[in-house]
Amino acid sequence: MDPDTMTDAGADSAHRAGRLAWPAERLRAKALEIRRDIVTLLAKAQSGHSGGPLSCADFGTALFFHELSVDPANPAWPERDFWHFSIGHVTPVIYSLMAERGYFPLRDLMKFRAFDGHLQGHPSCQDTPGIEVSSGSLGQGLSVCCGVAMAARLDDHPRRVYCVMGDGEQQEGQIWEAAMFAGHRRLDNLCGIVDYNRKQIDGDVEDICGIRPLADKWRAFRWNVIECDGHDLDAVLAAFAAARAHRGQPSVILAHTVMGRGVSFMADDYRWHGKPPKMPEAEQALAELGTSYAAWSARLLAGGADRDAAPSPDGVGP
Amino acid sequence: MDPDTMTDAGADSAHRAGRLAWPAERLRAKALEIRRDIVTLLAKAQSGHSGGPLSCADFGTALFFHELSVDPANPAWPERDFWHFSIGHVTPVIYSLMAERGYFPLRDLMKFRAFDGHLQGHPSCQDTPGIEVSSGSLGQGLSVCCGVAMAARLDDHPRRVYCVMGDGEQQEGQIWEAAMFAGHRRLDNLCGIVDYNRKQIDGDVEDICGIRPLADKWRAFRWNVIECDGHDLDAVLAAFAAARAHRGQPSVILAHTVMGRGVSFMADDYRWHGKPPKMPEAEQALAELGTSYAAWSARLLAGGADRDAAPSPDGVGP
Amino acid sequence: MSAAIALPAKVEKKKTREGFGRALVALGEADPRIVVLVGDLVESTMTSFFAERFPERFIEVGIAEQNMTGIAAGLAAMGKIPFLATYGAFATCRAADQLRVTVAYSDLNVKIGGAHGGISVGPDGATHQAMEEISIIRSLPNMSMVVPCDYWETYKATLAAARHQGPVYIRFGREDVPVVTAEDTPFTLGRGEVFAGGEDLTIVACGVMVYEALRARATLLASGIAARVVDLHTLKPLDVALLERCARETGAIVTAEEHQVNGGLGGAVAEAVVRAHPVPMEFVAVMDRFGQSGKPDELMDAFGLRARDIVVAAERALERKRKA
Amino acid sequence: MSAAIALPAKVEKKKTREGFGRALVALGEADPRIVVLVGDLVESTMTSFFAERFPERFIEVGIAEQNMTGIAAGLAAMGKIPFLATYGAFATCRAADQLRVTVAYSDLNVKIGGAHGGISVGPDGATHQAMEEISIIRSLPNMSMVVPCDYWETYKATLAAARHQGPVYIRFGREDVPVVTAEDTPFTLGRGEVFAGGEDLTIVACGVMVYEALRARATLLASGIAARVVDLHTLKPLDVALLERCARETGAIVTAEEHQVNGGLGGAVAEAVVRAHPVPMEFVAVMDRFGQSGKPDELMDAFGLRARDIVVAAERALERKRKA
Ligand SMILES: Cc1ncc(C[n+]2csc(CCOP(=O)(O)OP(=O)(O)O)c2C)c(N)n1
Ligand SMILES: Cc1ncc(C[n+]2csc(CCOP(=O)(O)OP(=O)(O)O)c2C)c(N)n1
Ligand SMILES: [Mg+2]
Ligand SMILES: [Mg+2]
Question: Chain A residues with CB inside 8 Å of D105's CB?
Fold first, then answer.
């Protein structure tokens, strides 16, 4: 990878630090763009996951464009919040969020999973600036986030830590090891988000190995549980605010979502967990999302970082 | 190992099948002998765990001498119930229960952990007749028991499956994978027993990584939870009966116990988790238990199987 | 004894994992003890055939590989013959302790199908490209391990695994790979097969690299070099006698595997060779680095896992043999 | 360059894990980034010294090795230098996937102390006698691995691990073992040390087997055989140059390790030797079987891990060297 490519975003935009704190309305518009990115990059790569990325798109946008304090031009900014997707397979939404937020140029999205790109099928911190820890084997991320939260506590640092998990992923025992640890240590700088889309590779989560009652589980592991509609951005913002305000326990947001949300023929269908749309399907999806492959891939290839994302200099909002 | 040694018990006793269903009073007397065995074999080996075996002694006796349908002379008896200690380190109580029940001669207990014995430090199914699956790495046993329970279901077999776990062991994520699976599959032929002695190697479970509220956890994983005083044999028998009667869910018995129970200077002290009593300590312990090392080791070395254990031929009690 | 395998004129390609999936159905029909478990990867592991045919003996465990391994052990303890399937990375690494203590130490009759072995997995990238299975499984006593080279060999390895008493690991890849063996090519668990004769050096390969080895042999033959090609499908137990014979008779060995170089096929062969008859060896393997995303072909090229890489290694080995 | 190590007249014995525990305290004093994690095994891993001295930088995780490994990764991602400790069986097998994906693939600065390596663990038996760590860790890219031979070497390896950027695994045993090195014996991560000269053959050993190798050398010397003894404390990266030199100069190699024979020290050396300069090798190791309960001495005898076993292997290797 050419390190110069990586810092384009920083080069042509003001130094961006801190939280954007965008209002819900603006987030909605951005989430639509994220969905267009996802479909476009998947159609280009002809490989990768559609369903989970689309269910994460709304709360993911809220996370990146409202909640997180980060500096995409300087991913190692010491004051940053820490975010991590334990579900590494949702790279389409992760990379879209990162590019739209300014971690790297939008055009890089068109090299998703390509041999000559830097966007691996699953997140790799050795390849992509801004990814801090690699993932792709399910169930490991919450432990990593516990470690980051412990480091913040050791350093008396105000960093907040966000961990996105899947609902199928809740079947991995390591999640419950980490949950027990975080509950025991009262890591209130830690916030989990479950993409509760009720689907996994082989079908319905409740058919395969039911995780219900999920809220009771987290409560029994001593977490503060917040449930919300993961596509309702007002609700998501309220959930983040509630998590931030809660003291003495880690919080988990059970974000009720729909797999494949935003594309009619993908919605709520587990068969879209792990495959990309073929080109005609992508065209239909992009039409539903108000654009076309030609138009949107041109936007991406045009490349630069998204100027809208520039915060006011004090880093607390647009 | 000489296979002949292994079948002594069978040779000099009637073919024993089925449940003993001893009453509580008789179990109390046997539990005292189990404790004497434990202290004696540990003193002889000068290696091994004292605390957990003593906390398991009472419910363990109820399990082996009341609840389980087994045929120690024929460990592979197709009609048997399946029992498994996921906490492999409590071999002193496992082997005592086995020997007293007739799986192998009592004298073998005096070769605990010895190079020329068949009683490994942790249970080994390749070495000890009656051990069905090896253990010693914590957290793995409940999964094994799920497999056994599934096999029974596939075969429409009335076998019941009992899995003894530790409370510190509840920190292992694999336990919760298995718990989720069993709850999902409604494995009501499965009964877990947690030796809830509130201690693990490094101290109090609640200090190290708290597992409370444990009953809520199991309930949230869709199990029927039964709590009892794990040293009160009437209560333990009632718990087993309740578990047997419960339909549509697996049951877990949270057996509240005291680590090291029965020996004054070991009781409730985590430092006795993993060490054997030195000889003077063993003498004191055995005095408290109403015998002496000389007397009890002589009983063990005298060797044969325990004749009291012979059930009536119909296998439903003495 | 061994069937000579010629490079097929027209290459038919098929997935090795399909051989696994088909064999499971055949096994299921013949033996009611066969049970199949999967960790939320029915299609990828091609256990779907079995699932459709024998839904009552198919257990979907969900995303919990440790638990799946333990459940399989429990089933085996009760006389079932469980085959579990997931990606190789998770079958080995995620459940290594369960394999060690519950399965291998207990010597239970558990069969493990590890899918997506090797870098040819392609765009999913490093986390999903299993390349440590041989090192891990070989280190566990009581385990057997097969890395079949094509559809038919996988099919036969799966049947053989069911016949064998004890734990067996079978590794298969993701992509279509050339079918080099036929339905009646001999297969015996624990024995390597000489697929093509030659006295100048031996190429010992497993998995998809067997086809590359046969291609390399053709190239070498054109420059007058006669390479013997051994399909060493069974990594454990190792066919030490065959390896010794090859070392003695050809005096140089090249190993070829889609696996980490440390402790893989090359390592296994090296251990045998230095004990029996030391000869120069060269290794074609993944050189102690993680994989990455890309098309399978791009990756096989970039990571040096092609017939031409075997040819270069063979020339180096021959050069060393001459000098020695 | 290498210090000559003589067999001590009076053998002082000390636990290698004590070297780990002491070094952690020294590191903790010098560097506030050092954090220590343990999985309910404070005394066994001798992290108790650190826990007492720096309770605020000591994290008791409980019985959850996967989680502990992930937490260490998170700490490392934030610039801490975490050392985690548990038994080697669980540090490797129970957390292999976490080591692979979260630690090694991310190349995070996590240090792993694996206690109770080898059969000399004694009465606890097979499950607690870790004997697969070398095979597993060597297969993971980016990892470094040290198997120190005594107290001082463990101490130095622990300091060196902290200085090295990237994941490092250190293996130590349970028992007191002879102290053969001194405080000032050179130690460089990645380099083997020639502890004793000789031209007839080389004994390459690690861990407690270094002492046995020195004893074997003395026995061999009495029959006029000059064996070189190499302390190959670092298994990864491997000191290939030194091994090549030994192969060339002595023409025969015996490896000695308290580890499974498949993919261990012997395997690593064999891989290097067949690539550089093939010579006859003999392996003193655990022959692909699980351990068992017994006294450490009984087990070392029964499993053939004694100086006398090295002597026999050396004689076999010499015989083969002569015939070759
Ligand atoms: C340890 C592990 N096991 C299996 C997989 C294969 N896998 C990738 S995604 C997935 C399903 C995840 O389900 P969920 O968390 O609900 O995500 P969603 O399908 O909703 O995107 C599986 C089984 C994996 N990546 N890691
Ligand atoms: C996977 C694993 N990690 C660590 C150990 C070491 N170990 C043996 S017993 C034990 C404590 C178990 O605590 P608990 O379940 O409460 O049993 P108790 O101490 O009450 O007997 C530990 C950590 C182990 N055997 N397996
Ligand atoms: Mg889902
Ligand atoms: Mg306890």
Answer: 124, 126, 134
